[in-house]
Design goal:
elongated, 41% helix, alpha/beta, two-stranded antiparallel sheet, 7-stranded mixed β-sheet
Length: 290
């Protein structure tokens, strides 16, 4: 029976027109390629290449074998592709907060679908509390978002501080009651901000109820309201107010991937593994433009 390893070297030599280039293509040494050709010739009992000092010619038997070699290698690749084909199939509904609505995540999801062609991914963008609620009700299979006080069990992607964001020029003139820009309940940023202000005896008012990161940033950038947000989302023109300005420190927030326990666990676990690996980079967290 013809050895596919030897056939692969034979095809590479003919395609590249050189033993040296064939060795580079297959990440082998030139003596190894020459040895493969000699073994193949010994196996078929006929010369396949006529060597000269600087080149070679393919013999008629070599030309005849070439067609079969290509077919055998092609069938082997097809067989491996079918055997390694993912068994995952169906629809995965993902809920993401705006912190994740960027090309890094969407590119990763596209790559997952390329590797698993029978999987369809649908993405819903919302606020953390609303997405967790949708997951509990069975409308979402997996949630990517911030947790601040972890009411759900999930896998950590990264952790970073929350900060009080405000317009740069107004950082030393805090009004009272403190005007806040907040997401609706339930929201970990909102919960952390109101809890800390209450503990420190601050009076506050909700000056703007936001439904997007863009509106949250606009409120802070214009000085209309102070907004709790992850430190990585501070855009030019915003500063992080600290205890030096009289404000209480905010806790860290954790960005998690959370799986619906009622979903297809093998599929969701594989996707969660890809997400954790994708975000486990020195550059995390990803800064999202305002």
């Amino acid at each position: 029976m013809l050895n596919p390893l030897l056939l692969r070297s034979f095809v590479a030599v003919i395609d590249e027109g050189s033993f040296t280039r064939a060795a580079q293509r297959l990440h082998l040494t030139q003596p190894a390629i020459s040895g493969h050709i000699r073994r193949l010739e010994a196996q078929v009992g006929k010369p396949l290449l006529r060597r000269t000092t600087r080149s070679f010619e393919v013999t008629p038997d070599g030309e005849w074998l070439m067609g079969y070699a290509r077919a055998i290698l092609s069938l082997a690749r097809d067989a491996m592709a079918q055997l390694s084909r993912s068994s995952f199939q169906g629809r995965v509904r993902i809920g993401i907060t705006e912190d994740f609505a960027h090309s890094h995540l969407l590119g990763m999801l596209q790559a997952f679908m390329w590797d698993n062609p029978d999987i369809g991914i649908e993405v819903q963008v919302g606020i953390p509390g609303g997405l967790i609620k949708a997951m509990r009700q069975g409308y979402v299979d997996l949630v990517l978002g911030a947790h601040g006080g972890a009411h759900e069990t999930g896998r950590l992607l990264w952790r970073e501080p929350l900060v009080w964001a405000w317009k740069e020029r107004d950082e030393h003139h805090l009004p009272s009651p403190l005007p806040l820009a907040l997401f609706p309940e339930p929201c970990p940023y909102r919960e952390a901000a109101l809890t800390r202000l209450a503990l420190w005896g601050f009076t506050q008012r909700t000056a703007m109820l936001c439904l997007s990161n863009a509106s949250l940033h606009a409120a802070a950038a214009t000085g209309f309201a102070i907004a709790p947000m992850p430190a990585s989302q501070l855009a030019p023109g915003l500063v992080a107010l600290t205890s030096d300005h009289g404000l209480p420190p905010l806790p860290d927030t954790e960005f998690m991937v959370t799986i619906n326990p009622g979903g297809d666990q093998p599929v969701l676990a594989a996707l969660a593994d890809s997400l954790v690996e994708s975000f486990a980079l020195p550059s995390s967290p990803v800064t999202v433009p305002a």
